[in-house]
Amino acid sequence: MRLELGQHAAAMDDAEQVFRMNPDRGGGFFLRGRLKLKSGDFAGALADIGRAIDLYPLRSAYHFLYRGDAYRSLGQEAKARVDYEYARRIDFGQYRRDVDSRFDVLAHK
Fold first, then answer.
1. What is residue 81's predicted lDDT score, i.e. its pLDDT?
2. d(Cα 18, Cα 57) in Å, to the nearest integer?
3. Distance of alpha carbon 109 from alpha carbon 97, whole angstroms
4. Could you give all domains of the chain from N- to C-terminal order, each with its CATH number?
5. Which member of 16, 32, 36, 59 lies 3.0 to 4.6 Å from 41 by CB, making a disulfide possible if both were Cys?
């Protein structure tokens, strides 16, 4: 929530709390990865979001959308497309607009 409100320092504090409470779960990595993506640290975002996907057994389309965003930001559009396509396959409709918007961005490049 704090990330969406633009409260990046507070969101990073939240991520660190999640790490301390559950170091072997993916939530902290995912939040930190989203923060890194927003701040322009695309390689760091890719690493953290990838780690969250590895650790989080119930990963959702959302995880793959953000990893795709990190790939796209690094100029790796083919890998971004793979993640976006996977997100589309596993999505139950919750993120349909988000998935479609990612494909729109790739189509207009």
1. 95
2. 17
3. 19
4. 1-59 (1.25.40), 61-109 (no CATH)
5. 36
Residue 42: other Cβ atoms inside 10 A:
18
Answering whether pTM is above 0.70, one says yes
Tokens of 80: 């971004």
List Cα–Cα distances, 48 to 18, 57, 61, 83, in angstroms.
14, 15, 16, 15
- By the 10 Å C-beta count (0-12 exposed, 13-18 middle, 19+ buried), 6 is classed as exposed
What confidence tier does 109 reach under pLDDT thresholds 50, 70, 90? low
C-alpha–C-alpha distance, residues 93 and 97, integer Å: 8
What sign for the dihedral angle of Cα 63, 65, 68, 69?
Answer: negative
Residue-wise pLDDT tens digits, 48-67: 999 999 987 677 888 999 99
Neighbours of 106 (CB within 10 A): 14
